[in-house]
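haha ok so turns out i had the wrong file open the whole time. this is the CORRECT one, sorry everyone. sequence first:
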Amino acid sequence: MEVPVDNDVLLRQHGLQVTAQRLAVLRAVSDRSHSTADDIDRAVRAEIGAIS
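then structure:
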């Protein structure tokens, strides 16, 4: 059983601002195993639209 990770806390622990883009990337990475960068890019764009 996996322990749920609080992405907000994870980002703050590493001194990063919590942004919609960062949260979307973390969700995309955690939801998909063995994804390519293009897979993650498509998933994030589908969730939040434009990214930089």
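Helices lie at 7-13, 20-31, 37-48.
again sry for the mixup
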